[in-house]
Specification:
- This protein has 11 helices and 3 strands, in the order ααααβαααααββαα.
- A 3-stranded mixed sheet has the order 1-3-2.
- It has one domain.
- α6 packs antiparallel against α8.
- 70% of the residues lie in helices and 3% in strands.
- It is mainly alpha-helical.
- The longest helix is centred in the N-terminal third of the chain and has 39 residues.
- Pfam families: Rce1-like.
Length: 296
């Protein structure tokens, strides 16, 4: 079982929290240092200096490189295998990763095209072939590393460590979901839309946590998260988002906090959980999500 299997490793439980705590502390320091600073204006200044692709690399590279850091820490400091950090199966199920990526990538594409055709005045055509191709290469390399870092840190290392210490399933699920959401609090979207958008970030963290626990591995969460950030960045950009890219479309509408935030969390994510539960035959929901670590 994904959470239980860490009991067979002999690392000091404190080691499970060193990397996550260090990362969270760094994020808090960055948030405090940026208080009173217009994050969007800062990003625009970076874009003027280094270009769109240069700014993209500067913003995403630290998190992408963080993937190597967390994998090194887990393998060589904790003495835990990367497979056990990824899944409870005998080997990583790449079909699960690609299936989840395909499902959410398809939904994201359909929703974007529907938004474009129903509200064309909210978008402008932003596609420039040469710039897009350069960005495409950068995004394919860096974005999956960035999203995998967040999954391995929150749904992997931190969730397993908290489960080991608390002997609970629910506590790690809730705590990692909240911390995952709070990690995004310095994003320019928060300043533009308001703190209500944290419902989406925390709700997404909760959804990914449930995926991980119910499916006994990170594969579905890895695929979903990669599709969410990669496909989204390739399709649409806006002047008020964290990632401003050479995408196909540019959203020029004024952002609003309402249906767009609540709809995925309350409608789409539950439907996706239902779909995955049928495909992979999940059972014992209550026991798996709220039971003790020793329960099967």
């Amino acid at each position: 079982m994904y959470l239980e299997q860490v009991k067979k490793f002999t690392a000091n439980p404190i080691l499970y929290f060193v990397f996550p705590v260090a990362f969270i502390a760094l994020m808090v320091m960055n948030y405090v240092a940026s208080e009173g600073v217009d994050t969007n204006e800062l990003i625009q200044q970076i874009i003027k200096t280094f270009g769109v692709n240069g700014a993209f690399i500067m913003l995403i590279a630290p998190l992408s490189i963080g993937l190597l850091g967390v994998l090194f820490w887990v393998k060589f400091i904790q003495g835990q295998t990367i497979r056990s950090l990824t899944t409870s199966r005998s080997k990583v199920d790449w079909k699960r990763i690609f299936f989840s990526f395909f499902i959410w990538g398809s939904i994201t594409t359909i929703m974007t095209l529907l938004a474009y055709y129903t509200n064309p005045e909210s978008f402008v055509w932003n596609f420039k072939p040469e710039k897009f191709m350069v960005f495409l290469i950068l995004a394919i390399i860096l974005v999956p590393m960035q999203t995998s870092f967040e999954e391995y840190l929150f749904r992997g290392n931190m969730m397993q460590g908290m489960a080991l210490v608390t002997k609970s399933r629910l506590i790690p699920l809730l705590v990692t979901s909240i911390l995952f959401g709070l990690m995004h609090i310095a994003n320019p979207e928060v300043g533009k839309v308001g703190y209500i958008i944290m419902v989406y970030y925390i709700g997404t963290g909760l959804f990914l946590g449930i995926l991980t626990i119910m499916d006994e591995g990170l594969e579905l969460a890895l695929g979903f998260h990669a599709a969410n950030n990669l496909v989204g960045a390739l399709l649409v950009t806006a002047d008020w988002t964290a990632f401003q890219t050479h995408s196909v479309f540019k959203d020029i509408s004024e952002p609003s906090a309402g249906f767009e935030i609540i709809f995925p969390v309350l409608i789409i994510f539950p439907l996706l959980l239902f779909l995955f539960s049928k495909v992979y035959k999940w059972k014992n929901w209550k026991e798996k999500l709220t039971g003790n670590l020793d329960n099967k």
